[in-house]
Structures are given as C-alpha cells and as structure tokens.
Design a protein that fits this description.
By secondary structure, the chain is mostly beta strands. Helices cover 12% and strands 35% of the residues. It is built from three helices and nine strands. The strands form two sheets. It has a six-stranded antiparallel sheet with strand order 5-1-9-8-6-7, covered by helices on one side. A three-stranded antiparallel sheet has the order 2-3-4.
Length: 155
C-alpha cells in the first residue's frame, strides 16, 4: 500500500515570519534559536532545523473537524520555510528518529486505530493501519511530547 506524507502548508505561517517578539506574543507564538540538532523539527519541511536557525513555537490545530478528537498542540515552524515536504512511500528522517504515535482516522474524523512505532517499524505500522478501509488518513505525533508531526494519506 502506497502512502503520502505531507508537511504543513506554509501560507498560514508566513505572516508571522519576521514579526517582533511583542507581535508574536500577541498571537500566542514565540521565536526560539535552535540550540540542539536534532531537536527542533519543522512541520513544513519535515526536517530538523540546524543549530543557530530560528523557529517559531506556536499552537496548531491538527484535527480541525468538530469531533471528540479535535486536537491542538504546540509545534515548531522554521522561520522562513516556504516549501512543504511532499513525498510518496518515503519517510523523512525527522520521523525516522522519533517514537511516533500513529493515529488512524476515518472520513468523519473518528479514530479507528492507533499504533506506536519507531525507526524501521513505522512503515509497516502505516501499512497495517491502512489495511482498514475505513481509515482515510493517519496523523503522526511525536509520542514523547505529543506534538503533531505530519499527515499521512493513501497515495
């Protein structure tokens, strides 16, 4: 079963790029300088941001449907990121090196199944979840901190 992983659309974040600290604070966001690599995963490019670069820490709604699984949580966005990750049957390194919570949702936004996986176990876990024809998308979250990582759909 082929799958597609996509990073977030940068359009909603572009107005935040270059804002002052006070302007970011008014929007519930903060700018941080990356101090560890890996450690600051950008949700647009799905790359660990290099040391010394800046990221924006902000709240993101990963499940927008009005269901009990509606979800928001903090994410990092690399300041200036313009091109989202988009690949078929390829797992970006930022996901390979983390323990992921993979949550399979149906077309109504209801969770049908979930798995924890890391490293070489992630792709087989995605395949198992997509064996259920009701599952239309998988939301990957970093298990330790709970942050949304990426959306996975059938290719």
């Amino acid at each position: 079963m082929s799958f597609r992983i996509t990073g977030l659309d940068p359009a909603p974040f572009r107005p935040l790029y270059g804002l002052s600290e006070a302007q970011l604070a008014q929007r519930g966001a903060t700018r941080m300088v990356v101090t560890d690599h890996p450690g600051f995963p950008d949700r647009i490019t799905l790359e660990d941001v290099p040391t010394g670069a800046t990221v924006l820490l902000l709240n993101h709604t990963s499940m927008k449907r009005a269901t009990p699984y509606r979800a928001t949580h903090a994410i990092f966005v690399r300041e200036g990121a313009l091109r989202p990750y988009d690949s078929t049957d390829e797992l970006p390194p930022v996901m390979q090196r983390r323990l992921l919570s993979l949550r399979g949702f149906d077309a109504n936004g209801m969770m049908q199944a979930a798995e924890l996986a890391s490293g070489a176990e992630i792709v087989p876990a995605i395949a198992r979840l997509f064996q259920d024809p009701e599952i239309t998308e998988i939301h990957a979250h970093n298990a330790a901190r709970g942050c949304f990582s990426a959306r996975i759909t059938r290719a």
